[in-house]
Amino acid sequence: MNMKTLLLSMTLFASMNLHAAIKVGVLAPEGTGWAKNIKKMATEIKDATKGNVELKIYYGGSQGDEQDVLRKIRIGQLQGGIFTGKTLGEINGDVRVMEVPFTFNHDRVKALKTLEAMTPFFNQKFEQNKFKNLATFEIGHVYFVTQKKVQDLNSIKSLKIWTWDGDPIVATLFESMNLIGVPLALPDVLASLSTGVVEAAYAPPIGIIALQWNTKVKYIVDFPISYSIGAFVITNSAWANISPADQKIVSDIAKKYEKEINSGNAKDNDDAMAAIKSQKIEFVKFSDSEIKVAQGYRATMIKKLTGKLFSAEALKKLEAEMAKK
After folding, report:
1. How many helices, marked H, and strands, marked E, lie in the chain?
2. Residue 313: beta bridge partners?
3. Per-residue pLDDT tens over the stretch 8-30
4. Residues 131, 265, 275, CA angle at the centre, nearest 5°?
5. What count of other Cβ atoms lies within 10 Å of the Cβ of residue 143?
6. What are the E-state strand segments in 191-253?
7. Which terminal CB of the chain, N or C, has fewer other CB atoms within 10 Å?
8. Cα separation, 119 vs 107, whole angstroms
């Protein structure tokens, strides 16, 4: 091949538009605010890249639960997913440092600022583990809802509480506080609250409403357990199939929708709390002394989880961010 032919070939290759079709599994049902924003994001990405990048979104758990989606990604049937912290932790355990119970109390603003500051560090770890994080989401504060009134953290120990099996943070919380856990699949919780198999469960306000637990409980403990997060990740190999120019477009659009989704989630959680109040579910407030008790549990959990779920480096970065005004 002479130099002229080589240069022509290189020019033609450089001008080729790579087409990337990326299949993504999502638990959020179509029609929800979250799903609507994801759909708009996918359309905008397709239009802005002139069809070079096409996100095929499978909504409402049609590809299975989060574990199924992650398994399908690992065998190449899917290229991405929008996951909550539990599943993200299986890819990159350091993200779970954000969800250690009793870290942020009621301070959502502090939690979001900390998440935003920690995201570049998390993204490096995702890339080391062969994933590209396109957007990081806050799902919101997690609260206990109960059928019996509890006055403090100690009295929660008497309740039979639904537990999401296989989550190391939940397992450590229940072990550290000596709570009574009843492992159930998420769809079984509603009926179990009706029959008394469980007397309490936990979720962000939008989850409490979406899962209809508000119809089966009498109290909500106005003392956040933890701050729940999520992220939209795709494989590094899928990302590599996108041209550098289109990668920038995708990143910019994903970042824009990250902000919109987080704002929407915050409003949806506020609206859900207002709806819970309007249904005459009693808000139980704990005394300020319970914050100190909670911090003791947090310290115990950190000792158990550091070096096993998340790194000492991740904890150090979190504590440095928390110390900032």
Report:
1. 12, 10
2. none
3. 444 444 444 567 799 999 988 88
4. 145
5. 23
6. 200-203, 219-221, 226-235
7. C
8. 18
Chain position carrying tokens 């990081």: 136
CATH 2.20.140.10 fits 3-89+100-323, yes or no: no
Tell if the pTM clears 0.85, that is, is over it. Answer: yes
Residue with tokens 């912290």: 85
| Six token digits for residue 104 | 């942020």
- pLDDT, tens digit, for every residue of 105-129? 999 999 999 999 999 999 999 999 9
Nearest to 142 by CA among 72, 208, 203: 203
Token pair for 289 = 């002394």
d(CA 129, CA 91): 7
| Structural contact between residues 229 and 136, judged by C-beta atoms closer than 8 angstroms | yes
Question: Which residues does residue 226 pair with via DSSP β-bridges, in sequence order?
Answer: 142
Chain mean position to CA 301: 20
The pair of structure tokens assigned to 143 is 């609260």
In this predicted structure, the answer to whether residue 165 has a pLDDT above a threshold of 50 is yes
Q: What is each CA distance from 275 to 189, 194, 203, in whole angstroms? A: 20, 20, 15
Q: How far apart are CA 266 and CA 274, in angstroms?
A: 13
Q: Which residue has the tokens 């409403």?
A: 209
Tens of pLDDT along 127-164?
Answer: 999 999 999 999 999 999 999 999 999 999 999 999 98
Domain boundaries in the chain?
3-89+100-323
- The predicted structure's pLDDT at residue 2: 54
Q: Is 160 strand, coil or helix?
A: strand
How far apart are alpha carbons 84 and 27 in whole angstroms?
Answer: 10
**Structure tokens, 64:** 């299975």
Residues 204-230 have a mean pLDDT of 94
b/e per residue 69-97 (b: at least 16 CB within 10 A): bbebbeeeebbbbbbbbbbbbebbbbbbb
